[in-house]
Amino acid sequence: MLYLVPEATSVPEVFKGNILLLVVLSTLAIPMVTIFGLRLSGTLKSIHMEDIKDRVIPFIITTFYFLLTTYFLRDKSEIDPVLWQSLGLISLTILGLTLVTFWWKMSAHMTGFGGLVATVVVLGMKFPTFTPLYPLLLAIFLSGIVGSSRLYLNAHKPIETYVGFVYGFVMCFVGFQFIYT
Question: Does pTM top 0.85 for this prediction?
Answer without folding.
Answer: yes
